[in-house]
Every structure is written in C-alpha cells, then in structure tokens.
Amino acid sequence: xxxxxxxxxxxxxxxxxxxxxxxxxxxxxxxxxxxxxxxxxxxxxxxxxxxxxxxxxxxxxxxxxxxxxxxxxxxxxxxxxxxxxxxxxxxxxxxxxxxxxxxxxxxxxxxxxxxxxxxxxxxxxxxxxxxxxxxxxxxxxxxxxxxxxxxxxxxxxxxxxxxxxxxxxxxxxxxxxxxxxxxxxxxxxxxxxxxxxxxxxxxxxxxxxxxxxxxxxxxxxxxxxxxxxxxxxxxxxxxxxxxxxxxxxxxxxxxxxxxxxxxxxxxxxxxxxxxxxxxxxxxxxxxxxxxxxxxxxxxxxxxxxxxxxxxxxxxxxxxxxxxxxxxxxxxxxxxxxxxxxxxxxxxxxxxxxxxxxxxxxxxxxxxxxxxxxxxxxxxxxxxxxxxxxxxxxxxxxxxx
Length: 400
Known about the structure:
Elements: E1 10-16, E2 44-48, H1 57-65, E3 67-68, E4 96-102, E5 107-114, E6 122-127, H2 138-144, E7 149-153, E8 162-163, H3 171-188, E9 195-201, H4 203-214, E10 220-226, H5 230-236, H6 240-246, E11 250-251, H7 254-263, H8 270-276, E12 281-284, E13 289-292, H9 300-307, H10 310-316, E14 320-325, H11 333-340, E15 345-348, H12 356-359, H13 361-374
Parallel strand pairs: 3-15, 6-7, 6-9, 9-10, 10-14, 14-15
Antiparallel strand pairs: 1-2, 4-5, 5-7, 5-8, 11-13, 12-13
Helix pairs in contact: 1-11, 2-13, 3-4, 4-10
C-alpha cells in the first residue's frame, strides 16, 4: 500500500552530508559503487523542518549519521508503449513456487523460494506491502539467491493466496499466517527452520516487526524494514481512502494496468512492474475487464492497527535491525533518538519512491547483502576489505 504523504515544509538551511561513518553508530556510509562519489545526485540533502523553525541539533545529528546510497542511475517515471509493458514471468528470479494449504489458518498461500538446499542455514523472508504481492521482491531475490535462501509469499487476500476470510487483514492474523506458513514450508521438506532475517515493505514492514517481536519464531536474527515509519504512516491514513477511490477501478488488459502503475510513479521500474503487477489483477467475467485483486478499502478498519505502536515494537526487537528509507524526513522522534544511540542502522536510497525495492533492486540487494555481511550472517565476499561490524548498543541511561 502506498499512502499519500502529507506535505513537509523544508527549511532553506541545508547540511552537506558527512563523508564518513561513525565507528560507534549504526549509520556508517556505504562504499560508493558508481566510481565517482556523488555523481548524478545533489551534494546536500534538505532537512525536514516546521515552517519558520531551523533544524534542531538532534535533526542535524541524525542527518549526519544516515548512510546515503548512491544508485547507479536515477529512478523516475517512464513513458513506454504497451508493447514494452507485457507481463514477464518470475522463473528467472525464483527457483520454485508452491501453493501451500494451511488448515489451521483456513487458507492456501502462494510461496516462492530460491537458493534453498538441505544445507540451508540462513533464509531471508520477504513480506510485501498492502495491495502488492510476493513478486514485488522478484528482482531483489534474483540478486540475493546466490548468497542465501530467499522466501516470499502472497499475504491472504493478495496475489494467488486465498482464505475463507479475505477481509481479515488485521496485524495479528497476518503475523500468525506468516509464522504458520514458514514452519509448514520447512516441515514439509523435513528441514529445520533455519536462522531467519525478516524483511518487509510498508504494510509488510509493520507485519515483519510484529512477527519478530511476537517470538512465534525463535530463530529470527535479523529485521529489515523498508519505507514505513509509524508517524508518517499514521498521518497519511486519513487520505488513504480518497487515494484508493481516485485510482482506476478496471483495465482492458494487464499491460494497461502495468502502464498505469509505472506512469503514475507507483513503481518506477517497468521491468519490476511487469513481474509484480499481473498477480495484483484478476479478470472479472461480469464486466470483461481486469480489476484489482485486493480491495484494500474493505480492510480500512485494520489500517491503524498495522502502524500504531510500530516504533516501540521495532525498537524492542532484539535482532539486528535496519531501516531503509527513500527520504530522511520519515524518521519520527522515537526513531531519531534511537538511531543516534546506535540501536539500529539507517540507510537512505533517495532516488527511489515508496516501492524502494522495486525502483532500485540493485541498490536494495546491495544494501541487504552488506547488512548480512556486516552482521556476520554470511561470510564477507572480499576478505581483503576492512571488516566493519554494526553492533547495536545497549540503551544509554538518561543520566549519561
């Protein structure tokens, strides 16, 4: 789900980004892969501010500590012909798919997997956003499957997953769905559940946080949340219904739906949209047109529960945490303070829109891979590189 964002007034005061990371904090700047530093990107990032108020000292510190990723190319809405927007298959991204029936959940879930073997000791589990589907992670999975196992599944009432109660998208229901599905997937293969890094985007990020905090899975060692912050999400909810009402209700073809999604900027990468949009559509025989698979407006009663208390739940998780954002102004007060205390790593990919992992799959995969290496979840690929391990510190007492 991509909620409309409230307008943020920006102060004319700007700071040049700090060209180095702190040895103690969790926002060490990532090495530039473009070969020319900040080529193609502005050298300064405007700080969020209230009208008439300069940035606070805390806001300046946060900005100095946020790692900024420089993409190899900027991401922007594109203009393509319908012939360039035909659906693409997922086979080159994932190795297998399965429709797994869970009687305990009264549901059947579509799950995709790649890089899985009997010796698998680490798996990344990806949770998609509201209205999206598992294949929104396809291009990221393609880039990570050589390093660890990757799993992605359609949530209930999304994509190719079906349940007896399609309207129940509460956070609790989705958390129990995810835990039961992961256990059943590995049990079916006579494999123990490996160590898990749970990664979610938007609604899926909120569910990932609550899943990691629930202790339903006792081997979650990592948590990655992509472009969802409690304060921003809660302030956008009042506008969500009108946003959903404003989008087209049906399309004459799936290619037309892909064209709408890319032209509107919801997904800026047409290659990803050609994979992820088709499962978001279903054919309506009554009107002979393609309509949205998920009717998000019918789940409005659960929206607040997805995001309320998200920051405190995120910070309570003991696993190594990383927050990936498209814009620094999405940090709320609690996260600002915790980020300065080194409780989690914060990465900024400013060239992406809300669907960060689809707009910039290469940079997202690189960020995730370096996160896995930094926390020693996988071996570093370059033994000659300087070892830099992100260590989460204990909360600093107020007296200090």
